[in-house]
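Batch manifest, entry 17 of 40.
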Amino acid sequence: MPSTHTSDFQTAALKATDLEAVEKINVGLETELARKQLNIIADAPEIRIQDKTGSASETTMSIVADGGTTHFRAGVDTFAEGTETKGNVKFQSSTGATTHAEIVGSSGTLELQDGGLGLKLGSNVSVTGTSKVIQEITGPHTRDVSVLKRYPEMKMGELDNQTKAGVTVSSSSTAFNTTGFYNSNVYNQIIADEGWHTSGVPSSVSGSAYTIGGVTGEWHKTEFPNKLKVQSFHIAARYGFETTQAPEDLTILGSNDDSTWVSLKSVTGLSYTAYKYTPVQIDATEYYKYLAVVVTDTISGNQRARLVKCTGWRRRGRRG
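Output type: structure tokens
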């Protein structure tokens, strides 16, 4: 190690073709608060950092400013001109104890840690490549298995025969809407002492107004802006009436013209738990624009249906 020499200049300019420092170069002192600068001015200037142990170089990093773009480059082994290597880049806490994200050089993959990816509200996301599909992956299923999704995608309620975002609900009857019972409340995602209340007793009604697809009862119909291949339907009873006026028997129908209906599922003996949805598996093989639930009987058998909370229709795959 050479001897240590200190030179103190108030004003000085140092020019050199090659300047080497054995340990460090400081710009400014820790006790000074005035802003200091390290200026590098050249055509495509480059700052290089190389991790070297003994005679072996393990990591290289450089920052290059060229053509209006700042380039961060990471490699391994060497800075030799023309030699292409790919190193990893980690974004870490001040001590290096926590890695927030890492770019894997061999694949170019960005790996996020526990914090995840946060996008600012209103920001745009662009997808390039051979596919422009972003999937919500919520479990250990493979990429070729589509994700189960709920429809309608938004909450509805507080209005009879409501239309919202292209979704329209209607029903054979509705009662007590002056006290908060609306046929659109089946999609408000709330289980409480409210919902859709029928005017008639499902097992006793008759006539064309109560018949849809050849099935007679109190019906609730939903028109969607796009066809769906529905997999399941989830229904809950009005709170406090799980063992009396809740639907016990029902039929689920599908249509594409609101005229010709296909029976998708008939269910008898449904039971309910307070504040819980009861799933009805459908597994339709075709796409339908209209879906209807016809309640043909309640658990008590002789009372109006104090119905019905529906968390929505589930489907897999694309919309039709």
